[in-house]
Amino acid sequence: MQVLRNKFSFSVSTVVFYFLAIYFVFIAFEGVLRFYLDKLGLGILFYLKDGFAFAVLGILFSRLNIRKFSRPLFYTMMIVAFSVVIAFYNSINVLQILFGVKVLVLIFIGLLGSSCFHEQYLKFAWLFNFLALISVVGLLANLFIEFPWEGASLSIGGVDVDASRTAVAAGGFKRVAGFARHWSNPAYFCLIALILNSKSIRGKLYFIYFPLLLIGIIISTNKGAILCFVLFICVDLFWLLPRNIRSYGIKFMLFSLLFVGILLPLVSWNTNLKVDTNDLVVRIIMSSTNVRFLEVWPDAYELLSERGNVVLGRGLSGIGASQKVLENNIYNPADNLFIYLYVSFGFWFVLIYLWTFFKVLLLKCVGSRDKFIVKMLCIFLGVGLIGSTIENPVFNLFFGFMIVMLSQKNTDISKI
């Protein structure tokens, strides 16, 4: 009976991996798939990826042992349920709320499927190495070739969506998305690949692979991703130091990110701070930050205070991508983790930050488990300085894994 149980467990983890692999392939080739499926009149089939995600969630819930119901999963469900109630209280459309739930599906999969991650670690590593490299190839090609899906507008269920978004960054150069829908996702695949590749990319090949990922991140022009790349290097350097020094250095870095991520929007709510962007270099680095300081973050607070509650928030889907269809006239991208959590979950954001603070404080900074956690926290907090981190499907699965690992004492990732 035990043998049969083990075989069943293995088969479930394999099914979970392949369903998720299909999901992430859809994300990596989103621009291509949206465009050509629409040409065939089958645009709605793109959303099969969400079907695969919900199928995985259903499989994992069916295997859930109530007696071993994890605290992180319970508290996350409680916070989300509360924010759904607040969203209804603030008269947010039910379809918009369901979209907000969809955004969080991969976090729940991560919370429920951490054992699948450990069992299939090597496959996850190779999957993201492949998706990162193919994404970089797409970005490089897109610098010289205009793809047919660039800027194409599609209609899905009566709603207009972009097949692939293009823009001109500060400095006048074009932001390219390659095979993806948005220029940031290739960079995010590169960041996850850098965390997972470990020893799966060996020897001389690593010296080709590593610069390629860096090139992809730079081409994406995503400042949060570039910052995270630098933070990863800092983590690797800290890991060479004696344990005490390493621990102090890494915790100081993470606490700094946590503090600055809250401070930036708070400062913007109380001042009209503006950086002079006449200089080209300053304009490239700071122009989008200026927009956040002067418009996005102050408008987010106005959205909260006028259409929500400064204590309870607006509820799930009250800010960010969920607004685009049904609340487009008051759409705010948040562009900051603190703002996204505050508007979406109200006072719960304080508990989320306090929990993160104390878990970082308890990190021992030894072994592959802690290194994975630290680098995922670098993404969570680093990209979260100027982005709504938990809205991104490339990251969310691994945020779920990270939460589980932060909650456990002796869980290590696979030694490959």
Summarize the structure.
The chain has 18 helices and four strands. The chain is mainly alpha-helical.
Commentary on this structure:
The protein is mostly helical and 416 residues long. Strands 1-2 form a two-stranded antiparallel sheet. Strands 3-4 form a two-stranded antiparallel sheet. Strand 3 and strand 4 form a beta hairpin. Helix 6 packs parallel to helix 18. The longest helix has 28 residues. The protein is globular, with a radius of gyration of 21 Å. 42% of the residues are buried. The N terminus is likely disordered.
Can you give keywords for this protein?
two-stranded antiparallel ribbon; 416 residues; mainly alpha; 18 helices
DSSP summary: helix tally:
18
N to C succession of SSEs: HHHHHHHHEEEEHHHHHHHHHH
Span between termini: 29 Å
Sheet of most strands: 2 strands, antiparallel
Helix content: 55-70%
- Indicate the radius of gyration in whole angstroms: 21 Å
SS content category: mainly alpha
> Overall mean pLDDT score?
86
Overall geometry comes to: globular
Which regions contain 5 or more consecutive residues with pLDDT less than 50?
A: 1-9
Number of strands: 4
If strands are numbered along the chain, what order do they take across the biggest sheet? 1-2
Strand residue percentage: under 5%
